[in-house]
Amino acid sequence: MTSPADAHDADAQRAFDDLIANERRIEPRDWMPEAYRKTLIRQISQHAHSEIIGMQPEGNWITRAPSLKRKAILIAKVQDEAGHGLYLYSAAQTLGITRDEMTDQLIDGRARYSSIFNYPTPTWADMGAIGWLVDGAAICNQVPLCRASYGPYARAMVRICKEESFHQRQGFEILLALMQGSPEQRVMAQDAVDRWYWPSLAMFGPPDDQSPNSAQSMAWKIKRFSNDELRRRFVGMLVPQAEALGVTLPDPDLRYDADQGVTAMGEIDWDDFFAVLRGDGPCNAERIQRRRTAHEEGAWVREAAAAYAAKQAAPRTEAA
Ligand code: ACO
């Protein structure tokens, strides 16, 4: 016999399935399957952590930017990444996880963040390559997320994508200035492209046949395209842009047909990708340690903010 609770769950599941099938948004007040909630918490919190950890590789160059204008732009960009992290933590909180829990998962090393932020930034040209390649890959992956089925995530992504598009252009412009500069500057720009190209392709995630989450996330319309589809689309966008810059993409197997897009490309070093995911990348330990230290050093700010909030919330007579 069906119990009233079972009947309610079946009705709620039907309502959820209808919303998804009709391209409507799931909102925090709506019933959702537990696995959908968990998947969103996983993806959105990983995304938020990536934005926050992603401030470090570029933060490394704020004090050494080559001009006041470049410094101001870089500060604004790194600050935007902090803002993206905050929108995303807020979106994840609507699913019933707290900011403290997410932060603990990150600094304890239990949470993932994007593989791409575990590589070093030894030269100024890395600021250009990160903007052009890393933020370019982020846009390619994230524009479809503006249509994700979960309302708070999709809405956060709209603003994030607008800002990422500015980031991508500023990176392109840094590389363009270097490519129009001295022979040493051109070598520096090409070297940065050589180092960031493959990790930026790996950012899209493992190949489709090794991506355990894609099928379900696509059925729920969280992801709209597979990892390989987005990767291929990204490379197709890069080819004419590389030509305009005058840089070479470091893939001798790349075949590009302007009408059909990318027809062939070389193999990504997946061993390197999975090593970074296990925590064995060139900068994993440094990134987490830096985040942990910042968290500890910020304890007094959180305590002061909590004390101020408690004071504001206290009844007026008591405050008087
Ligand atoms: N870095 C670290 N971990 C990754 C990466 C990556 N580049 N790609 C995949 N993984 C992890 C997944 O998180 C998953 O691990 P988990 O199950 O323990 O969580 C595992 O590898 C298998 O991958 P998939 O099954 O393909 O996982 P998923 O369907 O979540 O797809 C993707 C991964 C494409 C990154 C997806 O989560 C996504 O689109 N996220 C939102 C965008 C984002 O987080 N971007 C980060 C960069 S932000 C920036 O550039 C500023």
TrEMBL record:
NCBIfam families: PA_CoA_Oxy1 (TIGR02156). Gene3D superfamilies: 1.20.1260.10. The keyword Oxidoreductase applies. InterPro entries: Aromatic_CoA_ox/epox (IPR052703), Ferritin-like (IPR012347), Ferritin-like_SF (IPR009078), PaaA (IPR011881), PaaA_PaaC (IPR007814). It comes from the Bacteria. The keyword Phosphoprotein does not apply. GO terms for biological process: phenylacetate catabolic process. One of its GO terms (cellular component) is cytosol. Its EC number is 1.14.13.149. Keywords: Oxidoreductase. It is an enzyme of class 1 (oxidoreductase). It comes from Microbacterium pseudoresistens. Pfam families: PaaA_PaaC. This is Ring-1,2-phenylacetyl-CoA epoxidase subunit PaaA. One of its GO terms (molecular function) is phenylacetyl-CoA 1,2-epoxidase activity.
